[in-house]
Design goal:
The chain is mainly α and about 220 residues long. It has helices at about 10-35, 40-50, 60, 70-80, 85-105, 110-130, 135-150, 160-165, 170-190, 195-200, 200-215. The radius of gyration is 16 Å and the shape is globular. The relative contact order is 0.21.
Amino acid sequence: MWSRFRSDPEERRDRAIALAAILRAALLVQDSARQGMQNGEASTQTIRSILAMDGNDGIQLFGDISGLRRALALICPLLQRGPGNAQEAELLRYALALLTLGKRLIARHDLAERVRQGIGQAQRQMEHFADPLHPSVTASLAQTYTDAVGKLSPRIIVSGESRYLSNNEDAARIRTLLLAGIRAAVWWRQRGGNLLRLILERRALCQEATALLAANPFNADA
């Protein structure tokens, strides 16, 4: 049994990066639901990760570590002690739902194909607008989320201010960010991730996150 979960350091590092990308998407969902659309570099990197259909390197796929710092800093607390407050509990709920939806999307080839087609359409729009945060791009990706992920369970219920949740552009941005979280969850599984392994290697993942932060000490928008 234990041999199943031995992996090389590069794969474990990638899983730590993927977990940070999932948490970053969840954090941005929280921020957008409470404060409206977030237009920083972290949002840009997060949405770009959806449009990058192929990639074998976590940094190349999800952006540099500076954009993941806020999420990386949460890996140790969440894995070792669990959520310390209501906001962290909500964040963990989002992250676990994204991990589950990523697994179920992989199993539904028809819906996975719908996601690929939707991303292809968004890529063409991206070529035209040259901005991953453009409302047309996020509206397209949000519709892809609704058409494909919306048919899976669990449904993610986002909490926040009604003025943002009921605003069309804010709601589209939130769905797009959730799609980015699922994209990261799919890649996490492609790099050997599953819930049992997450439990067994939580200390090692904490060490990977700490090492990534130490090797990239500069503050940046996250």
